[in-house]
Each structure stands twice: as C-alpha cells, then as structure tokens.
Automatic annotation (TrEMBL):
Residues 1-21 form the signal peptide. GO terms for molecular function: hydrolase activity. This is Alpha/beta hydrolase. Keywords: Hydrolase, Signal. Pfam families: Esterase. It comes from the Bacteria. InterPro entries: AB_hydrolase_fold, Esterase-like, Mycobacterial_A85_antigen. Coiled coil: none annotated. It comes from Algoriphagus namhaensis.
Amino acid sequence: MKKIKLITLGILLSFYAFGQAQVDTVSVPSEAMKKELKVAVTFPEGYESSEKNYPVLYLLHGGSGAFDDWHRKVTQPGLVPEMANKYDLIIVTPGVGPSSYYFDSPLLDSVQYATYITAELIPYVDQNFRTLAKKESRAISGLSMGGHGAITLSAKNPELFIAAGSMSGVMNIDTRMWEVGDGLKNMRREGQAMMLGPINYDAPFSKYTAVGLVQEMKTNGLAMIIDCGVDDFLISTNRQLHKLLLENEVNHEYIERPGAHTWPYWTEALPVHLAFFDKYLERK
C-alpha cells in the first residue's frame, strides 16, 4: 500500500478481526476550505497482498455525525468491513461539517463540501489507493443529510458515479416537509439561510435540494435506490421525490418499510444498498 498520512484511533483496532478487512483513518486536505478532514477507508481482505484495483463506495454520514459513524454506530459490529469483504470493494466514509448538507455555500468559504467530495477527496483516494478510477466503478450513498449529499452530488456530477443511494435522506431541505417540532425546523432553516441565503423552497425547487434536480436525474442515467422508514420524520420528503421521479419517468428503486430515523434501520439498509450497487459496479 502506498504510504500516506495516518491517524491512529483506538476504535479501529477492533475492526481487524472481521475477515481480515483493514480500516485506516487518513487526513485528507481541502484546498477549497483550507483545512484537513478525517476519512475512514475500509479495504477488503487481500488488498495488500493483491495487485488488482477495486471499485469504491463513498458512504456519507448524517447531519450531526462524523467520519467514523458507520463504524461506531451500526447495530451490527463490523458491518462495513463485512460489506467490503463480501462485495470486494473499498468503502470510504468521509467526515464533513455538521448540518452542512454536502453543499458548496455561496456565502461561506468554510462550507465547500461538494467541491471537497468531488474535486479533492475522490482524486485523493484514486491517487493513493488501488481503485478503478472511473465512474463505472464508483457509487455513493448515505443516511439522512448524507442521503441528500449522495443524491445531489451524483445528480450534479454524473461523470463521477454509476449509481447512488439514499437512506432516510433529506430529499427536500424545506423543513415545512419535516414531521418534527418547530424548534428543530427553525434551527435547521436558520442554518440553511446562513449557508445559502434566500432560496426558493417551492416549485420550481432550488438546485440546492434533491427535489430540484429531477431533470438532471432524468438525463444522467444513474442507477438510484431510495429507501425510508414509514415512521421517519423525513418520509414526506422521500415520497415527494418518489412522486416527482415517477411523473418524470425516471428509473429508480424506491423502498418503504417499517422503521424510523435510527441506526437499526440504517444497519438493515446498508446491505440492501450494497446488493443494489453490486449489479452496476464494473470490476474490470
């Protein structure tokens, strides 16, 4: 493996037992934001001893999360290394700022996370690890805010991904669609205003939100999987996007099942997404 800057975390030691998958934590610089961000990279068994290149899944965390959420919080310990082994791919879980939505803010230089993921992190991973560095071998998914990030980033950058997924995603950042109390709605809306300034929350929707990118989804041909629990406070936003996609004849897989905005739900959802992506990821 090419030598890179590593940050040792005690929590990662427990991961080596799962089928010999390896998890490294790296510090990835962002020129756009003048800072470094932590990223966990999970390699399948045999990565170091082989010479082949691997497809990559970028797996995004939620609004108040961190780069290691997918390792620490799943209710099935070692699930991410298990998925890396089962599907013989690299899984990258980047960390971003809280409630940043993977936007490029027009107002804040410190919130340029779309540029970071697409123009800084992906090239870094391709340059430092043995990846299949092409869209046909790259997928993206995430939970909650990360679902929003995966769908919007793929819609705006179809040259980078062959498939995208969302688990309990914020498919419309208009908090009027959220089935939560006014306190959280107001706090989130104030944060959005600081990052974005005034935007249009009604049709035609802003391009900063997933429901405003349906035409891009229609033309880019990405494979998409969207799922949400029926008791999730974001179910209305997922149903809204599903309806718009149907009306515009956009191919996608849509799932509703019992569950809420919880780690048990996302723990069950991740293997479903990996099975979906496996049908599309090219391994040559």
